[in-house]
Amino acid sequence: MIYIFFAIWVALAGATLFARDKRYVKALCGVYILSHVGFAATLFAGGWWGATSGTLFTFDEAGVLFYLLMAVVAIYVLIHSEEYLGEDSIVGYRQYFSLLMLLIAAITGVYFANNIAVTWILLEATTLCSAGIIYYRHTEDALEATWKYLFVCSTGIAIAYLGILLLSAAADNTSLNYTQMRELIGEANPLYLKVAFLLILTGYSCKMEIFPLYTIGVDANFAAPAPASALISTGLVNAGFLAIFRIYSLYAATPVFGWVQSVMVIIGVMSLAVGALFLRRTNNYKRFLSYSTVENMGIVAIGLGIGGAGVWAAIFHTVCHTFIKSSLFLQIAVVRQIYNGYRINRIGDYININKVGAIGLLAGMVAVLAFPPSPLFISELKILMQTVLDGDLWLTIAITVIMCIVIYSVCQRFVKLCYQSNQDELHLKRVDRRLSYSALSLLVVALVVGLWQPEFLLNLIDKIATL
């Protein structure tokens, strides 16, 4: 079933690449959105949930949950991109949307892949699609970011490939199916398992945007158009998370699982610390939001590392972060249209220029910092409680101290944007409050989840978190 939709998505992307004018591009985007709605409907109504398609894809709980999240964000990104790039030339316009369609399709494949090799191939495909989007502006900075992204991501994927080969050799398995490997690696050589995990984690860290290859995601979000950054920082980051989570789940049945959890804690604390440090140093709002992603994914990694309730909290945190961060990036896209830039020390007075957008950013600030009623408060509280129950005093202190730095940095930067005197030229005719309202609606969903968690969502996360 999924192969038919892949063919449809590739065909639509190809047709978009050769569209004669923007009306055709918009029409094809509408058809593309409808195709994903049809795919989701087929997934549920057709009874495909839990089934396997063509031996390489399985529609399990984790894949379904993250696909639905990505599909919602993708619809917003496509709509906002049409407005954001409305004055650009048709050549760049159609290339952008064609690559965006291919990127969404590749991410969908990552979510449902039940084979390590297929996951690896599709993650590399996301690199190629993302690179074209990053280079959209054709500036010197965009060219540098694109080459860095291609080089570092390809290097990371190559490192992950070595880990996959070693893991397969340790398990004496040629199929690379996740289910079969889980049954075989329990008796594998512990040293091989440890080295394989380090290689895979290092390689995939460029997609999840955690230490050590987190920098490439920051550069990508800086250069790419802001609506596309909303997808890269959520849908693509979630793909990296799910790729790592599936490997992490394999190791739950091995004697080295405790060691794996310790590695995840170290990686998580490093990511959290790096994110907090650069939140203080950066002078660009897009980079600022990207380092916030690094910080949040560090919290997710810590949740996986401590285990217990931390695993559930890590998944819940990733789900809610998707709504919050995509909303913030879409709001920042409106900011760029007004100021024609993202310089923190120069732009300001946003509360008087676009009150709706300013409220969206301030509310997003509250949500991303995990202040109630933010849903991130629930996940971060569970993680802290688990560290206390485990007696990890140093970890509790480290998380608390670093989060205090994050809170100070984020509050200072968002308050500056809304209330400091503006020093840049304004383009008030570009103010489109409909886009601000639209981005705000994603944040409202996140805040509702913070106050009331649907039983359907809780049960789904419970099943995913059961290792």
Can you tell me about this structure?
- With 467 residues, the protein is mainly alpha-helical.
- 78% of the residues lie in helices and 1% in strands.
- It contains 19 helices and two strands.
- Strands 1-2 form a two-stranded antiparallel ribbon.
How would you concisely characterize the structure shown here?
By secondary structure, the protein is mostly helical. Helices cover 78% and strands 1% of the residues.
Q: Helix and strand succession? A: HHEEHHHHHHHHHHHHHHHHH
Largest sheet: 2 strands, antiparallel
Low-confidence stretches: none
Assign the structural class, choosing from mainly alpha, mainly beta, alpha/beta, alpha+beta, or little secondary structure.
Answer: mainly alpha
Report the span from N to C terminus.
Answer: 28 Å
Range of strand content: under 5%
Spatial strand order of the main sheet: 1-2
Helix content: over 70%
Any idea what the shape is?
A: globular
Q: How many DSSP helices?
A: 19
Radius of gyration: 21 Å
Mean pLDDT comes to 94
What's the number of extended β-strand segments? 2
